Amino acid sequence: MRTDTGQVIHLADYRPTDFVLERVDLTFELDPTETKVEARLIFHRREGVDVAAPLVLDGDELTLAGLLVDQSEIDAARYTATPEALTIRDLPEATPFEVTITTIINPEANTQLMGLYRSNGIYCTQCEAEGFRRITYFPDRPDVLAPYTVNIIADKAANPLLLSNGNFLGGAGFGPDKHFAAWFDPHPKPSYLFALVAGDLGVVEDSFTTLSGREVALKIYVEHGKEARAAYAMDALKRSMKWDEEVFGREYDLDIFMVVAVSDFNMGAMENKGLNVFNDKYVLADPETATDADYANIEAIIAHEYFHNWTGNRITCRDWFQLCLKEGLTVYRDHEFSADQRSRAVKRIAEVRHLKAEQFTEDAGPLAHPVRPVKYREINNFYTTTVYEKGSEVTRMIATLLGRDGFKAGMDLYFERHDGEAATVEDFVKCFEDATGRDLTQFSLWYSQAGTPVVTASGAYDATNATFSLSLEQMIPATPGQSAKEPMLIPLRLGLLLEDGSEVTPASVSGIEMTGDVLHLTQRAQTAVFSGIPSRPVVSLNRGFSVPINLHFNQTPADLAHIARHESDQFARWQALIDIALPNLTQAARDAREGRDIACDPAFIEALLATAGDETLEPAFRAQALTLPSEAEIARELGSDNNPDAIHAGRTAILTAVATAGADLFQSLYDGMTTPGAFSPDAESAGKRALRNIALSFLSYAENDPARASAAFKAANNMTDLAQALTILAHRFPDAPETLDALAAFESRFRDNALVIDKWLTIQATIPGDGALTRVRALQQNPHYNPKNPNRVRALVGTFAFSNPTGFNRADGAGYAFLADEILDIDRRNPQLAARILTSLRSWRLLEPARADHAREALMRIERSNDLSTDVRDIVERILKG
Ligand code: TRP
Ligand code: ZN
Questions:
Q1: pLDDT tens digit sequence for 720-767
Q2: How high is the pLDDT of residue 825?
Q3: Could you tell me which of 502, 583, 587 has the C-alpha nearest to residue 538?
Q4: Pocket mutation for ligand 1, best pick of 126, 132, 267 (most atoms within 8 Å of C-beta)
Q5: Going from the N-terminus, what domains does the chain have, and what CATH number goes with each?
Q6: Which of 323, 622, 680, 737 is least surrounded by CB atoms within 10 angstroms?
Q7: Is the CB of 305 under 6 A from ligand 1?
Q8: Ligand 1 within 6 A of CB of 327
Q9: How is residue 138 annotated by DSSP?
Q10: Is 126 in the pocket of ligand 1 (CB under 6 A)?
Q11: pLDDT in tens, 479-505
Q12: Cα(331) to centroid of ligand 2, in Å?
């Protein structure tokens, strides 16, 4: 039985360590079940620290096999070793001193995938956030930085490859069957960035010449036979390295950069210094097996991890409360990279869709927390969309407020001032203040106040004075632990459009400070008066989603359609279309619930089809416009008392109405948006595929017949088209013979490719309706399913819970009961994975009462278990309480 100490860590309790770590020497003798780890650590006592102070090192499930201080054994009375800590007393008065620790660990038995584990015969490590303490006793916190030397000894035949961080020092034979390799990482780093990989893998090699002319060897390691599928990742890596030099002036700093793909991984990827470890899902791609979305994800995640080399590794975090310092900033950097590589507007639309679906939902529920939290029980549970995506939005707002040059000056100062250090959010913000002279005190509330601000706007035009006044009010909702909030600095970009579609630049603005097209809202309620406005303007508010808020602004569909047609900001055009769509979708859900006929505003259909057919717009944008808000987004808009069946029925009726009205257009898009020639994953081709496939989806509503999707499935020559056709078949016609044939054909063609089988699992797990649970249960018995592999579990159980609103929220509560069983089962092996999937219940209070009761029951059953990990206990208690 596990005992959760229930210990809460507070930001306010931070203090530096008593001892400074000078260097680390690690020797691993790898063995599947008994790996010996010897750690030689050199410390000195920090100035002013009492000579009697003990050295306390962190551990997690460790047993001590040997301990030396300055190479000598010490009296048993001088130390205490438990699985969680090693405490050494009476340390030498004269420092530095050396501590040598031996531990024996079992990589094969490590199902948590934290620390050193074995995946498919490959030894690999995952140390962020607190995995290093599962390898050896150590001051396992991000503000303890040191250079590392790593020696790896292993069986030569099974492990021809021995990798760690930094530069390769050398290797040699070691007895008859073994060999060893030594690595040295000169850049001081915290333990969470340590990595070791050993095994037998194939490699793709390339090189990159940095801006100062140094040649860096690039290596991507994958399972033998999969080398060709790493080509795109390599290409993305080189583009990332170049982009970081050009845009942020950041050059790579070692002789070699390595990426290793592993098949068992808790998250997307990890930025270990010089040795990134990836979930193979985010490395491997070819046209036959990867969708356009997969390519885009690979590009983004390769970039993200590479960018961490500066934002995270060279400058790291003082403590885990500062996580957004590396994650929010690095997400911002990878967003900008993708925007530069692809279509900026389409990238922004996709980002905002994701932000609203995930982060706004988190921020509105029991798991809401500030971008920089002030307390946690389990740090693994704070790798959240708030820290990552809202953290990125906060960085983007700094760029909006300071402008390009101001932002660049602040970033340059940050790199210059804090290189080699463990920094805080305050340090970061201070760089922008010092570089530009701006006071960012009020702005910093974005880091400390949780909750998505609601901004309510209203406008009035005064024809006699040719002025337009815009009143704005901000309100930040209460969140767990934060009831009263201060008004924030809200950088709201806007445009004023005249009747002919042109934009008017006001002669002057009073009431609210404005720079360029950005209004700087600072008070709870403020009114801006724009002068020199010749006629009633249509206001386009929050252009480019300059600020992550919920905007309440009663605009007529006609005004929204005007924006959708004339805005120069593409994002705003898309947003206007969504704002026209949403009331139709929410009303349809209400009507479906009450058994009324469902009506759809013809003006909405007209505006949507006009955009879809507008050939001056890029296909990817048109596809985004046609992708109506998801059922989850409609639920969020409705706010409470949700009935997922009614939302689904209402949305289906609207889709059918659009499909019927636009049948000719969809037919011509389906016929016309082809991508002749060899497959290319570039953004333009992907956009055409997206538009063609959404047209196919609408045709399936108009025709209500699986024939066309079935033909598309048979004709597809790439995974994007194939998976889309299969999704349409399965979701629209689950019992049709064409669907059963297609599912079987897909399985037999890709049975040897687990990542593609994940798509097969996901497509079936997300088939709407009550039958989904039975299907998911049956798929768990399928030989393809492996409850120990996180990708399989996420593809089946995770997508069922997160992405199948009607199936998961079955009225009888069976979906929740299933989830509870699964969580308790997964938690025994992999707490991190269990806790994450459990967050699928975070919005349970917004369900209609009968479903909410069932959900509460399932949560309480989890809570009652006396064998929960800290991870799951933390989530379940917060979800129930909040
Ligand atoms: N730092 C990683 C990233 O964002 C993510 C990460 C944190 C992670 N903890 C992890 C990855 C645990 C795998 C396992 O890039
Ligand atoms: Zn990251």
A1: 999 999 999 999 999 999 999 999 999 999 999 999 999 999 999 999
A2: 98
A3: 502
A4: 267
A5: 9-200 (2.60.40.1730), 316-448 (1.10.390.10), 454-547 (2.60.40.1840), 555-704 (1.25.50.10), 751-882 (1.25.50.10)
A6: 737
A7: yes
A8: yes
A9: B
A10: yes
A11: 999 999 999 999 999 999 999 999 999
A12: 7
